[in-house]
Amino acid sequence: MIRTRRPLPVLLTAVSLAVTAAACGGGGDDTPGIEESLRPTARDATAGVDNVDGAKASAECAAQVTSLTMYTVAALNDAAKSGKDYMEREHPGLTVTINGSATNYVELVQQLSADRAAGRQADVAVAGFDLLPTFANQLGAQEFSPRLLRASYDQRFVKLGQVDGRQIGIPQQVSVPVLIYNLDVLEAAGVDPATLATTDGVLAAAEKIKATSPDIQPIDLPVGEQFGQWYLSSLANSKDSPVQNADGSPNVDTPAAREAMEFLARVGSYGPQSDSPSQQGLLRFGLQKQTAMVGATVASLAQGLRVLRDMGADGFRAGVAPFPVLPGGTLRPTAGGNALTVLSTDRCQREMAVELVVSLLAPDVVAASTEAVSYLPVDTAAADQLAPFYQEFPELVQFREIGDSLVPAPAWQGARGGEVPTYLSEQVERAMTGGDPATLLREAQTEITRLTS
Predict the structure, then answer these.
(1) pLDDT over 90 at 22, yes or no
(2) How many whole angstroms separate alpha carbon 254 and alpha carbon 38?
(3) Who has greater pLDDT, 23 or 240?
(4) Quick count: other Cβ atoms within 10 Å of Cβ 235?
């Protein structure tokens, strides 16, 4: 795997900083610092609460509560500030404090745990999807009824915030894995982009590219930042065989998982795979033109396509496809991203926290966030507002209707469950560098059972 870190041009840095914090739910321990000027949202956004029964705090509670504290990752500070502005304007005398120093979701959980042990107030927090069980079982996240949301909230996403049938979080930003390709290289190789829908088609394309453009690595699927688990999970889902059983136990030693791992091993045979998808993968593909196809998150697409267009004659035509499915499978990608959770246990604090959460899901905030980082918009009114954005990036339109196909992210429980995404990604990396897929998955089944027990 390629692990060398290099300085990035400003535009590509914007892509990297915008997507690493929320790409796949857990984040990584090496997430870079966030530059103030590069944080979403793309513009000032208006937060607020419509007249949904129960979404707005009662007059009694509004009069009692003088402070709220929200925990978020640094990349989402601008969105949080729009909610702070609304709440403090709507409720004179209220102070909303944003604790946004964490660079990833694992670090945020560590902060929350330490502050909770010290008796510090925490009312609202952003949670990576795969960490929702931690919020439910260890951090005291409260159930949140989707009936408190606007009619325009896209209910297809609600399931992504559930733990054991309880609505613990309300999805705020949702991503899926994608495959970006160099259309010029594909055409020179005689590859129809439509054939990239399946893993067999991707491998056939790679062979043609290898024959016609020997100086270009056909494909790069970076596995860092937990993308290895993301690929494996999405591929197994396509055969209706998720890597996690309904009871939370691992389900990785299956025919579908082996087929997925064998595909990933074949990909590794075409050359060194990048470690960081948001930095090295996009750099090698877009600016260095070393690869013909690269795995990424939908959240990187708008900024990535802008980079290529700004390159002018030095750039190339790029296309985007959903991450492929196994032969005979259907598109059922694992969702990445985050949800808003309410941690307040006091009745009035909870009412005010709910109002803050609903305000942060206002269509204008969702739209402004999507303009900055091209997540799937969780609000239909926001999606309508984004019509000019989708005209600028028609490549993104195909993902607008993917909500029905999304599968919730594996949420590994147990004291060491948080280690599983990184471990499983490392097993994918081992397969890509010559390890036997079947052996690696048998090992994974045993190790994940131990970690989650």
Answers:
(1) no
(2) 42
(3) 240
(4) 28
Burial group, residue 328, by CB count within 10 angstroms (0-12, 13-18, 19+): exposed
State the Cα torsion 6-31-20-434 to the nearest 10°.
70
Q: Write the CB contacts of 418 (distance below 8 Å, at least 6 apart in sequence).
A: 26, 106, 109, 131, 134, 412
For residue 397, give the H/E element and its range.
none
Alpha-carbon distance of 271 to 287, in angstroms, equals: 18
Helices 255-268 & 199-212 angle (0-180, nearest 10):
10
Cβ count near 300 (within 10 Å): 27
pLDDT at 36 over 90: no
Per DSSP bridges, beta strands 162-163 and 318-322 are unpaired
CA distance between the termini of the chain: 31
- The yes-or-no verdict on residue 6 having pLDDT over 80 is no
Phi, psi of 44 (to 5 degrees): -60, 140
Q: Between the CA atoms of 261, 337, 278 and 388, what dihedral angle is there, to the nearest 10 degrees?
A: 120
Cα distance between residue 309 and residue 344, in whole Å: 46
The secondary structure of 146-192 as a DSSP string is: GGGS-TTB-GGGGGGGEETTEE-EEEEEEE-EEEEEEHHHHHHTT--
Residue with tokens 């330490």: 114
pLDDT value at 34 more than 50? no
Look up residue 256 and give its two tokens: 């579908």
User: Between the CA of residue 134 and those of 103, 175, 212, what are the distances in Å?
Assistant: 18, 21, 49
Give the containing element (helix H, strand E) for 78. helix 77-90
Question: What pTM was estimated for this model as a whole?
Answer: 0.90
Gap between the Cα atoms of 60 and 382, Å rounded? 32
Q: Which residue from 220, 215, 206 is spatially nearest to 273, judged by alpha carbons?
A: 220
Give residue 40's pLDDT.
60
Q: Which two tokens stand for residue 39?
A: 């944080």
* Distance from C-alpha of 101 to C-alpha of 69, rounded to nearest angstrom: 13
